[in-house]
Specification:
Low-confidence stretches: none
Helix content: 40-55%
Strand order of the largest sheet: 1-2-4-3-5-6-7-8
Order of helices and strands: EEEHHHEHEHEHHHHEHEH
Strand content: 15-25%
Number of domains: 1
Largest sheet: 8 strands, mixed
Shape: globular
Number of helices: 11
Distance between the termini: 25 Å
CATH class: Alpha Beta
Radius of gyration: 17 Å
CATH topology: Rossmann fold
CATH superfamily: Alpha/Beta hydrolase fold, catalytic domain
CATH architecture: 3-Layer(aba) Sandwich
Mean pLDDT: 97
Structural class: alpha/beta
């Protein structure tokens, strides 16, 4: 399998950032690590081995980015407005710097992918710029910025909170037509540590239904916990659908 490490300077974040590229060809996936994770996480936690058949056969290509969650979503200290501004800088790093970098290796639109807080990044990045992506897969996200910012809200955080901006979206918004040409999957278990994920995903589903946005909302069983073994199963389960034209 072709594996490449890139280190590049981000103008948006004003620091060096890293990316791991797995595979040589196929449908590109922009992969966000789980909370506070970095670009080697998918390799360290066995996802690359799990999907090695797809990667080695040139069916998919993974582009795994670093997070800055420790400076934004999960920072314990710091000025709240600085933390939300940092998240907005990260969003612009992804869409203005990472997406063009992916295009240097693969000219297809990527699919956004993530688990836990990575699912939040995958969802909000896709929802804010569906023109740049061909779909998204979000596993076990908790779509409620209050969980991370204790009820604080400002314009920057609003843009990164689908549970806030979707209720304000008009039914004639031009993005709705684009969403409906894409493949959108949200999945959550209903077992241990998934209660907030279920609660917030049902609200997102209500907003999609109000707006007429077609998507696959999949609620797995009460034995399905918020943990890697289930995300492995979900990745293998949903991948054929995402690759089927």
């Amino acid at each position: 399998m072709q594996i490449k490490h890139l280190c590049h300077y981000s103008q948006a974040l004003e620091k060096d950032m890293n990316m791991m590229i797995y595979g040589r060809d196929g449908v590109p996936f922009l992969v966000f690590p789980t909370q506070d994770g970095m670009c080697r996480q998918m390799e360290d936690f066995g996802v690359i081995d799990l999907l090695s058949d797809y990667l080695e056969n040139g069916q998919i290509q993974f582009f795994v980015v670093d997070s800055v969650d420790a400076e934004s979503w999960s920072a314990k200290d710091g000025i709240l407005s600085w933390r939300t501004a940092r998240q907005e800088q990260y969003f612009h790093y992804i869409v203005d710097e990472v997406v063009p970098l992916i295009r240097e290796y693969n000219d297809l639109r990527p699919i956004t992918l993530g688990m836990r807080l990575g699912a939040n990044h995958a969802a909000l990045t896709f929802l804010r710029r569906p023109d740049l992506f061909r779909g998204m897969l979000a596993l076990s996200g908790v779509y409620d910025s209050d969980n991370f910012f204790d009820g604080y809200m400002d314009p920057a955080l609003y843009e990164s909170s689908p549970e806030r901006f979707l209720p304000s979206m008009s039914m004639d918004h031009p993005y709705i037509e684009i969403y409906n040409r894409r493949k959108i999957i949200f999945c959550v278990g209903q077992g241990a540590w998934e209660d907030d994920g279920v609660r917030t995903l049902r609200f997102i589903q209500q907003q999609f239904e109000r707006l007429g946005i077609r998507a696959w909302f999949d609620y797995w069983g009460y034995d399905v916990n918020h943990d890697w073994p289930w995300w492995y199963k979900q990745l293998r389960y949903f991948l054929p659908y995402l690759l089927n034209d």
